[in-house]
Amino acid sequence: VQLVESGGGSVQVGGSLRISCTVSRHTYNRGCLGWFRQSPGEEREGVAAIDTVGNKKYADSVKGRFSISKDNAKNTLYLQMDRLKPDDTAMYYCAAGPPPCTGGSLLMSAYNNWGQGTQVTVS
């Protein structure tokens, strides 16, 4: 299983950024997918998740600003981040886990495969 994130970087407050995660085909087709983030000294937290049929779930802190999506032809998961705030600064990780995950899950325990992370800095 391989998950590879890309697209992180530095952005100004109020700006936008889209990060991507390429997932191995078997995991992409079967699994639950999600985005997590972790700031220094903080616990990793769930940001957005999508289940096998496209239902989505978001953390309250990002609702209305972030959007999770996936491209089945490319086995790629995306996180579109708009109206970014300094508090969004973190390492962002994509994750994959086995079904069931009806509605998506923001719990780390639902996932057993993780990417290496991509840094997002908002200032």
Task: Give a short summary of the structure.
The protein is mainly beta.
Which structural class is indicated by helix and strand composition? mainly beta
- How many E strands? 11
Question: What is the rounded Rg?
Answer: 13 Å
Major sheet:
7 strands, mixed
SSE sequence, one letter per element = EEEHEEEEEEEE
Spatial gap, N to C terminus? 34 Å
Strand proportion, as a percent range, falls in: over 45%
Report the principal-axis shape.
Answer: globular
Indicate the low-confidence ranges by residue numbers. Answer: none
Q: Helicity level, as a percent range?
A: under 10%
Mean pLDDT across all amino acids: 93
Q: How many helical elements?
A: 1
What does this molecule look like?
With about 120 residues, the protein is mainly beta. The chain is about 5% helix and about 45% strand. It has one helix spanning about 25-30, and strands at about 5, 10, 15-25, 30-40, 45-50, 55-60, 65-70, 75-80, 90-95, 115, 120. The strands form two sheets. Strands 2, 4, 5, 6, 9, 10 and 11 form a seven-stranded mixed β-sheet that branches. Strands 1-3-8-7 form a four-stranded antiparallel β-sheet. The protein is globular, with a radius of gyration of 13 Å. It starts with a strand and ends with a strand.
